[in-house]
Amino acid sequence: KYASHSEWYWIPVGGSATKLSKPKKDASVKKVLQFLTSQAAQVPELKLSSPELFAKWEAAMKENPPAGGSEDDGIIRDALPAGLEDLEAAASSPKDDL
Fold this sequence. Notes:
The chain has helices at about 30-40, 50-65, 85-90; strands spanning about 10, 20. It has about 100 residues and is mainly α. The chain has a two-stranded antiparallel sheet. A hairpin with a 7-residue loop joins β1 and β2. The relative contact order is 0.11. The model has no long low-confidence stretch (mean pLDDT about 75).
């Protein structure tokens, strides 16, 4: 009855947009955090660490496991686990120097 189609684009600062292909499977949390920290390395004041973020994610998943999945399957769910709201808020807060 309903179609769930979306198109994703990668838009680097000062570059042109590139359409991304739909992944065959969900990325693991470790891979997503590695990508996040590699991109965040361009903004030194963020000081993000993949192992530290993964440890926070594991602790949050044990505290508040997702419904319908095991807590260690490594798949990102739609809901943000408790304890990671500060990371989401930091990522969405406006930067003063932009």
